Amino acid sequence: MPTSDPSTRLIHHAYRPPDGFEAVAPGVHKASTVIFPDVQALRSRDWKDKSGYTYGLHGTPTTFTLEERIATLEGGQFCVLAPSGLSAISLVDMAFLRQGDHMLLPDNAYGPGKAFAEAEMRQWGVQVGYYDPMEPADLASRLTPATRLVWLEAPGSITLEYPDLPALTDVVRQHNARQVADRPAVTVLDNTWGAGLAFCAFDLGIDVSMQALTKYPSGGADVLMGSVVTRDPALHRQILLCHMRLGLGVGANDAELVLRGLPTVALRYQAQDKATRELAQWMQSQQGVAQVLHPALAGSPGHRLWQRDAQGAACLFSVVFDEKFSSAQVDAFCDSLSLFQLGWSWAGPVSLCAPYDVRSIRSLTAWPHRGGLVRFAVGLESVEDLQADLAQGLAKLVS
Ligand SMILES: *Cc1c(COP(=O)(O)O)cnc(C)c1O
């Protein structure tokens, strides 16, 4: 329709992305509305198989590309994106659990995921229980005919115990084989630490892999996003339908930031892994330190399993201080560091630390240590500088 009205002409401008424009970076495509050529197309195009575009929430070329790349990274088949790691966790809970169901979490699970289960799932009539992730027999004893979801984490949040993932998933598989239920228990791994790089979750028997893309895939400490990856089309469909009903979507600019981080994710993982092992090992020999927790250290819980199942370790280690130091002294140690900043999250460029009271976050198992714990996340600064920062902080602590 020819018109001289400037608004109409600007909105119905003839722009199309140029054919033959082969940039390295995928384009940033934005939409709520996607235009259909005719009513027939509007009625027949199905968003669920991703064969076409229907509405911004159902995906754009940018989010489809990111989904495919995250699925590739994790050795999976299907992926959905959520606006944060935590929303990916709550999506999985809501996709698989109904009133009367039972779910299990490892006692060292990511805290906000525990909180969602305790505060929301419980009030919707879901029973929430815990198991000792270092004892597959303990998990076996806690599965019931109503169990529909079992969370796993490798290693545990904050305390970094490395579990026997194949043994744990095998316990659930054997339990399912004995049940007549039409809804078997699903295993879901919080794979943020492994990031698809330390091991392939699906090869270790996991059904669903959730990841906080906020951490490694972004790498910039500047974007929040989560993913849920599967190899199983039926599980994926259940997640996808719940995802759509909840109205979860991610912004194109955020998707672009994660796409930009992916080409360097393996290099960053390796570099931070190497630096973290150096610092963790060095910390272990320092005065005032009772134990360093890191799966690659011989004394750390699950070290052998990590050696057997993983090809790398992330940027985290935790230090348990000698019990002679008060929590105020441990807090003062954290305050005395200058390169290690105080803050949440990890896998970004800046090194971080935070003190934790582990006793207060355990639901089931006893925490064997009495000294204060500080978790460190190693960034991309020089290892020598980071070690010097720790050394000056320790010198003040023990003086
Ligand atoms: C950060 C994190 C999450 C949540 O990610 P957000 O994007 O911050 O919501 C979940 N699990 C683990 C293990 C994490 O470290």
Please characterize this protein's 3D structure:
Helix 10 (265-284) packs parallel to helix 13 (383-398) and helix 12 runs antiparallel to helix 13. The protein is globular, with a radius of gyration of 23 Å. It folds into two domains: 39-264, Aspartate Aminotransferase, domain 2, CATH 3.40.640; 266-398, Aspartate Aminotransferase, domain 1 (Alpha-Beta Complex). The protein is built from 13 helices and twelve strands. It has helices at 6-11, 39-44, 61-74, 85-96, 111-121, 136-142, 165-178, 233-246, 252-261, 265-284, 303-309, 327-336, 383-398; strands at residues 78-82, 102-106, 127-131, 147-153, 186-190, 208-212, 226-230, 289-293, 316-321, 341-342, 352-356, 373-377. It is of the alpha/beta class and 399 residues long. 43% of the residues are buried. Strand 4, helix 7 (165-178) and strand 5 (186-190) form a beta-alpha-beta unit. The model has no long low-confidence stretch (mean pLDDT 95). 37% of the residues lie in helices and 15% in strands. The strands form two sheets. A seven-stranded mixed sheet has the order 1-7-6-5-4-2-3, sandwiched between helices. Bound molecules: pyridoxal-5'-phosphate. Pyridoxal-5'-phosphate binds at residues 84-86, 110, 157, 190, 192, 212, 214-215, 224, 226, 345.
Topology readout:
Blueprint: H1 6-11, H2 39-44, H3 61-74, E1 78-82, H4 85-96, E2 102-106, H5 111-121, E3 127-131, H6 136-142, E4 147-153, H7 165-178, E5 186-190, E6 208-212, E7 226-230, H8 233-246, H9 252-261, H10 265-284, E8 289-293, H11 303-309, E9 316-321, H12 327-336, E10 341-342, E11 352-356, E12 373-377, H13 383-398
Parallel strand pairs: 2-3, 2-4, 4-5, 5-6, 10-11
Antiparallel strand pairs: 1-7, 6-7, 8-9, 9-12, 11-12
The chain binds pyridoxal-5'-phosphate (PLP).
